[in-house]
Specification:
Order of helices and strands: EEEEEHEEEEE
Largest sheet: 4 strands, antiparallel
Shape: globular
Strand order of the largest sheet: 1-4-8-6
Strand content: 35-45%
Structural class: mainly beta
């Protein structure tokens, strides 16, 4: 298990993010909406604060992902999924939500809006070459291997 330092930037009456089941890969993030609620019109997007900042260990990232129930039931998802919080970022975690549904969506203070997964990061170094090794697939992409 890896440990991540977390700081509450404002006081709220729910627990810190936690795994909700034994097999859960992610922990739910909640909206910190000082006004009590926000209304998203169809196709409207907003940066929703969480009231949390983190100190992610070097060599890791925190991936922010949409909640499937919110997407299915309300048509609300993330614009940049998955989002990444880098290990050197110390500001408030925010989630960019968009309402892809046909109706207004009211988001309430404390509502679960996304999930986060701690993941190791592998960095690469480039080797510039004149030719790449051939494969059977070659340069085929965007559906070239089937449906």
């Amino acid at each position: 298990m890896s440990f991540v330092k977390v700081k509450k930037l404002r006081e709220f009456d729910w627990h810190l993010p936690q795994y909700e089941s034994e097999g859960a890969a992610g922990m739910d993030l909640r909206a910190f909406v000082e006004a009590g609620s926000l209304t998203f019109k169809p196709m409207e997007r907003m940066l929703v604060p969480t009231g949390l900042a983190m100190e992610i260990p070097q060599g890791y990232e925190m991936q922010i992902r949409p909640r499937s129930g919110l997407a299915l039931k309300q048509g609300v998802t993330m614009v940049n999924a998955p989002g990444t919080i880098d290990s050197d970022y110390r500001g408030e975690v925010g989630v960019i939500l968009i309402n892809l549904g046909k109706n207004d969506f009211e988001l309430h203070h404390g509502e679960r809006i996304a999930q986060m997964v701690l993941a190791p990061v592998t960095r690469c170094a480039w080797i510039e070459v004149e030719e790449l090794e051939e494969t059977r697939r070659g340069a085929g992409g965007f559906g070239s291997t089937g449906n």
